[in-house]
Amino acid sequence: MIMRPGQQLLLPANPLFVWGSLVGALLLNMVQNMGLWGRAAWTPDLLAVALVFWTVHQPLRVSIGVAFVCGLLMDVHHGGLLGQHALAYTVLSFLAVAMHRRLLWFTVPSQAAQVLPLFVAAHAVEVLLQLLVGGNFPGWWMLLAPLLEALLWPLASVVLLLPQRRAPDPDANRPL
Amino acid sequence: MPLGTLDRAPPPFFRQGPSALTKLAVCSALALLLMVADARFKVMQPLRLGLAAVLYPVQWLALRPVLLAQDVTHYFSTMTAAQSAQAQAQIKQTMLSQRANQVEQLDQENARLRKLLGLRERLQAAASAAQVIYDAADPYTRKVVIDKGLAHDVRVGSPVLDEFGVLGQVTRVYPLVSEVTLVTDRDQAIPVLNTRTGARGVAFGDVSAHADALELRFMAANADVIAGDLLTTSGVDGVYPPGLAVARVEKVERRVDDIFARIYCVPLAMVSGASHVIVLEPVSAQIPERPQAPPGPASLRGRAAK
Q: What angle do CA A149, B27, B29 make, to 5 degrees?
């Protein structure tokens, strides 16, 4: 296996943490909807960020099938067209799988710039589907959503890798 | 360093599973199938219910901090705000009291006159109170979620009111919550009656023109509608009881090249920010069934049509 120059050796990912972070992202999405911003179109979709992140880092665990199921759950929560998020996340996850070997060779800000088109594509799929079934256009503010998601990429790559960056042999001086 | 410390397992050579392209094709086809089945054939409600049951614990958990924050803000809302709200409510109640006292008498009079004329009694709809929990997240529609569902005997199609007027209609029922489509949703139509002229029409949700409004469509360009007219439910639909306030006409545009006037209305209900609502039973349950057509001529006609 070819290693990138300066790559940090990481602990194996804990499957529980991977699934837990996906559920957590779904939960935060719901909190954004229920408590903070209602049905605003510009809110960043944290589940999409988490899905792309894990598809890039753990493509054998989290892949297109998982994205599809997550999309279905989001659809049920939204109460809109069933299958709309499922298709958007499927496309998102496919693009992430296609670029996962290349992406990690770049610095984190550069990675964020490269995942931006993925999020744009996912939102474009949703808007196209809605225009097909006759929904109304939610306004130009929605262009902000993929931008915010791309801006969250550096944060995700710090937070979601934290458990893997712990010491391999924790002792009294280095508990974590 | 013990084994298994590094995240560097060799990739599986032979058990690769289906390729990403195959998965994309299968999942996209499945998603499209679901969308067609949902939007066109409306048969996806069982799947929705199942997934909603899976999702409910997460939703419950997500709602806790939200409710907590609301409680805290309620607690710290000042005395003066509460007092002014109470004073306003009292003023409103005083203004309504005169009408409310007359209603008893009018009701009695109406009942007597109806009996005299042999008309049917006015339909009474059973009501139950509910609370709006949150706005449904879909930015392409206008829906809210209320805290009553199948368990509380809410039925699809029930009208929902708030203290000012008709808010919308229950369009999807889950075990513990239900979705209410607001009158301002693009696909929502409500039959109305202009209280000034008595003319009936249909008001449609209109989110494109300006934020959250209604449009009274299919009124002739010379129809007698002026800004300020009150629209109430007409009661001819078998869903809404007659006489509930829906909207007020805001602006009437009459164009030479258009056979219909463009009539914009503002909903009276608080479509953004309603908290306590009333769910009525649809009137259709009380309406007697249509009389069967006599069998002879109908079957003849059916044969002739073939």
A: 120
pTM of the predicted model, to two decimals? Answer: 0.82
In angstroms, the CA A33 to CA B135 distance is 7
Q: Please name the helix (run of DSSP H) or strand (run of DSSP E) that holds residue A123, with its range, or none.
A: helix A108-133
Give the phi and the psi of residue B170 in degrees, each rounded to 5: -70, 125
Looking at residue B302, its pLDDT comes to 46
pLDDT-based confidence at residue B306 (cuts at 50, 70, 90):
very low
Please give the pLDDT value at position A49: 95
A63 in B contact zone (CB under 8 Å): yes
Q: Which residues of B touch A137 (CB under 8 A)?
A: 208
Does A65 sit within 8 Å of B34, measured CB to CB? no
Give yes or no for A84 touching B (CB within 8 A): yes
Strand B143-146 and strand B262-267: the pairing is: unpaired
Token digits of residue B146: 């209320």
d(CA A55, CA A21): 13
pLDDT digits (tens, 9 = 90+) for B138-176: 888 889 999 998 888 898 889 999 888 899 999 999 988
Instruction: Copy the structure tokens of residue A80.
Output: 């809109």
Query: Given this structure, which CATH class describes domain B127-284?
Result: mainly beta
Q: Which of A95, A102, A99 is nearest to A118 (CA)?
A: A95
Instruction: Examine the pLDDT at A138 and tell me if it is beyond 60.
Output: yes
